[in-house]
Here is the input.
Amino acid sequence: MIPLIAFCGASGSGKTTLASAVIRWFGQRGYRVGAIKHHGHPGAVQRVEAGKDTELLSQAGANPVALCHGGGVDISIDAEDSPWGPAAVAGAFMAGLDLVVVEGFKNSRLDKIEVVGAGRQPMLPSGGRLVAIAGVEGAGRQAAEARQIPWFDAGDADAVGRFIRGRMKKSQPAPGDVRLTIDGRQMPLNDFVQKIIANVVRGMLGSLKGGEVDGPLELHID
Here is the structure.
């Protein structure tokens, strides 16, 4: 599966600033990075527009960029709107990327780095796994120490980027072997097609309760 890392935090905490800096950090090292942003307001889909957070993520080098909200998903490639979560969106529309940076989705099952603004207390969101805290002017350091997770200065994109890259190297599974049989006849699939199929299926399953499976999967369609 494509590695995903979510940056969450209160409004105005600096999530977009740090996420953009991390995207730029990976891009400068030759990584292909996409971005997904949670849009918490109902209503019409918003496009990637000048001055918006999505534009900042795009300018940092994220391609494509997806904006998720209650009314659907808007993606900077020509993809149809979808009700899926970030894992399914990444699997369906961002195959071939090295990393997808997610902004928001604090209650999802994604690995998360919480960004804490100066003088604020961390939210410590439930769901998924809080793997680190990045704070402004020392914010959130005590909470990180109490939870025995790393703390970073929110302005140190290099340290945060190296931390994420280290996790990617440890957790990235070997490419899966996807076999497709039609009426008893096995269809040849190249590595690229196998990767797309595996990412889409695992991404969609990841949005279901109990659907996150790292081992082999069997899918039969009659």
User: Anything to note?
Assistant: Residues 41-46, 78-82 have pLDDT under 50 and may be disordered. Helices lie at 15-27, 53-59, 86-93, 141-147, 157-171, 191-206.
